[in-house]
Design a protein that fits this description.
Length: about 350
Amino acid sequence: MILALSLSLLVGVPAPPAGLQNAKAATRAVAPGRLAAEVKALVASPGPRWIGYSQPVIEGKHRMCCFNSLSDSKRRGKDRYCCGGCHLERDSSFTIGGDEDRPVALEGSPGLVVLLRSESGRIGKVRAFDDECGLDAGGLPFTWLSDVRPEESIALLGSIVREMDDARREDGAGSALAAVALTAHPSADALLESFLARGQPRELRKKAAFWTGNSRGRRGFEVLRDVVPKDPDEDFRRDGTFALSQSPVAEALDLLVSMAKSDPDGEVRGQALFWLAQKAGDRAVKAIENALEDDPEEEVKKKAVFALSQLPQDEAVPQLIRVARTNRNAEVRKQAIFWLGQTRDPRALAYIEEILDR
């Protein structure tokens, strides 16, 4: 591996990821404007194979890897790979999220590895990984492409998303969107916005909304702010509340509060209340209380009770007891008592015993 890395530095062609194993690896440089053609030629070659390249990752401490571990990583030490690593030829759990313990990346480390799996003349899978994640290619050919320009990667991934969505392979389209959303380049924002546009397939719009909120920071929030509350599709707005809940921008909470209060669809208001509860805090509790008092639909009030039950237990139990004691709606009081019973909290059990003794 040391010799391969030294040779790659001499010729200016970066080697495959250091954590790659069990692969028939080859490396080639991509000339400007040639990514799509290079990938097309590799996809046309016989048999299954993996194609990979690196990209600059969005700001923040992100870890994209698998829950299961490569057995080899334990022998080399836990710190060898970020999460044990991934067996690319197995269906396995996948995790993505912030990691406060991750060390700062070395200067020049792009952070993101994009992988494409081809077989029978088409791309069947797209995966996005941390560049510290160990990868087991299952003995397949693995072609590593260097010098891949972000705008070309985004264009390629966009075409893959469209192809997979047209073929109703929504899992593959979602993985390709993840690779887009994690790439630090303005063209990623433009592509996600195009998939959010009215007239695009609903499920594709939902996935684009999630990744826009989850990964694109303030720009992503501004896009969702302008799209989600005004969209005529209630089903899309319901999922849009989840996308907003994933945004790190503080104003996203304000927008959820507004939708919980004034969206014309009760299901949307209920979903907004649910995601507000996951955020907790005084503003979330106040919005749920307002729904319990003022929402015109009983079903939304019931969802507000459920939202209260999702708060941290020290907040949820007193709030549920208050609703059970004082709310004017009998069905709402029943719901509060039901969710109190699910908490198994001594305060909740004492209140329920008090009711039974009356």
